[in-house]
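Thread: Newbie trying to understand structure tokens

Hi all, I'm a second-year student working on a class project, and my supervisor (Dr. K.) asked me to get a predicted structure for one chain before our next meeting. I've only ever worked with sequences, so writing a 3D structure as a token string is new to me. If someone could post the tokens and maybe explain what I'm looking at, I'd be very grateful. Here's the chain:
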Amino acid sequence: MEGNAEPPERKDSAPPIATYGKRIEADQGWLEGTEIHEFFHQRKVKLGCTLSAIVGSLILGGLLILTIHSIRESQRGPRALAQADQMLRGEDYAGAIRLYTVALEQSLPPQARAIAYGRRGWARTKIRRDPEAIPDFTAALALQPTLLFAILHRGLTFHRQGKFAEAMADYDRTLALDQNELDAYFNRSTIYAHLGRIDDAIADMSEAIRIKPSDPNLYVGRADFFLQAGKLDAAQASYESALGLDPENAEAYWGLAKVYDRQGDAERGIAKVNEALRKHPESIWLHFARGLICLDRDELELAAEDFDQVILRRPDYGLAYANRGMAELGMGRSESALAYAERAVTLNSRLWYPYYVRGRAYTERSEYNNAIAAFEQAIERTAGSVWSLSWRALAEGYAGDYALSRRDLEETTQRFPGAYEAHLMFGWFLATCPQAAFRDGPAALREAKLAVELSSDEPYALDVLAAAYAEAGDFEEAQATELRALTKLKKTSHDRQRMEKRRAGYRRGQPYRDYP
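---
Reply by user tm_fold:
Sure, no problem. This is what the structure looks like when written as tokens:
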């Protein structure tokens, strides 16, 4: 029902520190200090014995002291800038921010000042101080409008904040300056996908592949878009291209399994990864791929075994713990699911998915305030996590704030019109909220039908559509739609009993009510 692996990380590529020093030296010449060197070697002072000579010497000495002071002051900015760059290379982001601030308080040439602002902004993004980074990037661009890394990284920062229009504008501006900027194409494609502009997303990812045809993750990304568009043959070809470059690419196997499932051959995906595992039995990535496929198939015990194999061989891999937690959650073991999520967070606090799993575990335990906090931490790490946004809204409803829940769900559908998950969750709320004032049968039908269309008849979308028909009073259609959902649902699914119970209620003319 939902994605479990992190997308390829392309939002944190470093600004070109290695080229910065050469560019400044060539354009400005102030780092070498040649003018200071010549000043001291061209001036000679002759001391006399007369009073006038002494006075003259004192005056000249005073001037020299003042000059030396001014020279030292003029060196403070470049020196702090060089030290800040060194700290940035060493990933001491707080120290780099402090020294960039010192440099910016001194006299710097405009180009160097622009780069100092840009670098400070980038350092701030690395320690999740995005709100402070945006003004830095903007200040850099006011001084140097074509400073490419500042444009790109401001766009990436807007993107993380969910400000897609601003991010798109900066990606467009980046590509107008450099048509080979991979990160701009990659990240713009994800926004296009969120907006339902799948053809544009595919075109951008194809451009990214043109720039770096050796990167298997780009082929996976394009295949995901083909799959979202229902172009199964193209998706299959793109996933296979990824495997041609990386025969152990977990996401490619996971995606191929979805393609085969949609083509009516659900066993082919698991068979393919099993064949690969016979050749590479020690591959953690193939075990991870099979775990993801089994998780989708609701074969939770098998999924847990594969994730355990990954953890055994790679105990520092946070996503293995997070997905292991999802398997526990599916088996109704929320306490152990929470423990796995906590371990994943400890190992990698930058990823959104472990916080999402933590939120799901807290939701299952009816600890709704903790769940909301966990989902908000996931959202802080990527504003593009539709599941995190939607589940936070549902948790708000479970906590009794139906007005806030409805508002947040509706806003998510507006921000992500092409994401079936957003429409699925909003449709569920509109159909099943226990308070009549917040239910809306016709609106629930609209959202659920859109979810079914966008997901190509995904069983959980059909389940929501059945609930919407029941809320609208069409119990015959509700029963038929629930039966379609059950037909498509994996036979091993732990949700089958719940769907059967809902269908029995529709036969009795009872709409379904969720929430405590």
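A couple of things are worth pointing out once you decode it. The CA atoms of residues 182 and 208 lie 5 Å apart. The longest helix spans residues 51-89. Feel free to ask follow-ups in this thread.
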